[in-house]
Design a protein that fits this description.
The protein is 24% helix and 47% strand. The chain is of the alpha+beta class. Strands 1, 2, 4, 7 and 9 form a 5-stranded antiparallel β-sheet that branches.
Length: 180
């Protein structure tokens, strides 16, 4: 009888197998203006940067963003300044503020996407507005790095013919067992 129990256990495991495959995908986009972009307090609208990771392969229907980081590289020609980055929009707006960009040197500022990650996740696009609250600075470049998870869930379902063959085999084993 133990052979039949082992056979049932093997059949149960083979017909109820579920494969879950999660892979981490990284999307990176760098924006560097072709001309120098100087941002000062008199620029009421600031300067917009538009990221689009759809063009890098992100699919909001089949992938879920798990993290995102923006890196901004700035420089300054003289004086003190304060700056503000508005990342995302609406209820997903995230604001980053800083001050005193080093004179004649590039400095990078890193922002972890929190609220604004949801804005990026919904359609793969993210707008960032750079502005100055005092003084001026030069925007050199910005890089968005986002990580997504692609979940593929597959369930193996046995075909009726396979189940019929297994049933016939079990029946044959049972008859053989009774005869001996």
């Amino acid at each position: 009888m133990s052979i039949v129990k082992h056979l049932f256990a093997t059949i149960a495991l083979s017909t109820a197998t579920v494969f879950a495959h999660a892979s981490v995908l990284t999307y990176t986009q760098t924006i560097t203006p072709s001309k120098q972009v100087k941002i000062n307090k008199s620029d009421v609208d600031g300067y917009d940067i538009n990221f689009d990771i759809l063009s890098k392969g992100y699919n909001p229907l089949t992938q879920s963003l798990t993290s995102g980081v923006l890196t901004f590289t700035l420089t300054d020609n003289a004086g003190d300044e304060s700056f503000e980055f508005d990342i995302g929009s609406g209820k997903f707006l995230q604001t980053y503020t800083g001050s005193n960009v080093p004179n004649h040197q590039e400095k990078s500022y890193t922002v972890n996407l929190q609220k604004s990650l949801a804005d990026l996740a919904k359609d793969g696009q993210l707008t960032v507005n750079l502005s100055s609250t005092s003084g001026d600075y030069i925007f050199v470049s910005s890089t968005l790095t986002a990580q997504a998870t692609n979940l593929d869930t597959t369930t193996n379902v046995p075909e009726p013919a396979s189940l019929a063959l297994i049933g016939l085999g079990m029946g044959a084993l049972a008859l053989r067992r009774r005869k001996s």
